[in-house]
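Predict structure. Chain length: 295.
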Amino acid sequence: MDIRHLEYFIEVARQKSFSKAADIIHISQPSISKAIRELENELGVTLLYRNTKCVELTDNGEAILEQAQQIVSSFQNITGQLEEVSKLRTGKIHIGFPPITGVTVLAHMFGAFKKEYPNIHISLYEFGSKKIEAAIHEGLLDIGVICIPSEQDEMYEMMSLVRDPLRIVMYPEHRLAKRSEIEYADLTDEWFILYSNDFGLHDTIKERCRQAGFNLQVVFETSQRELMTQTVAAGLGIAFLPSKICRELDDKVLVSLPMADPELSLQLAIAWKKGRYLSHAARALLDFCKQHLFI
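Prediction complete.
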């Protein structure tokens, strides 16, 4: 069923005339008559009673008219919404964001984007990097902030975001707290508070320690930054944290020291699935990020 046939039928019923309806719709009278006949043939009923004076609705026509008006109204609402979306007035974006990163620049950028596009709704979900990657792959997230893998994953496109060196965090009375920097050899007998297994940094830190000749001793794993720092302050272990977060720590409670070369870094990227359709809103956000991250 062609939506235009319903629109023609509604206008003929409104005007009670094929010629008046044709003038209003700006098509020829034979064309509108043909469209109504096709609609009647498709429905298998007569919709209009035609005489020399006027056109009137049959009982079937009366019954169909109300439904036709609802259908046309719904269709117009759909096309209007699509127009709004294409003009970036509306839309939704689902974004995965890892905790314990300290990337406040993204929060500010999302806020600036929201001001420019107030009717685009951003939903933020807090997961570890591995879960974010899986959710992007499964289509549950449009975009995610992830740790850049050591080998480029061909399934994703990425926009490099930040490279932040990790520092060792410990309580002030720790035996290493007075050093200017920490060697990997200093860590062989230490117990660590580590990122949960769903974080990319979990594997990165463990692998770097293996390369240095020892296996990391883990007393506790967490995805909560506050819990990590509280556990370190309680003297249960030491931890790696990004330098941006370390700047916010109270130096009376926690000490942070740089690692000797080769340093470990948190490397983050905005990622989305290669080849997957991205909504107008998601593409607008990526363009916005490119403009504001690299100016």
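Summary: The first helix runs from residue 3 to 15.
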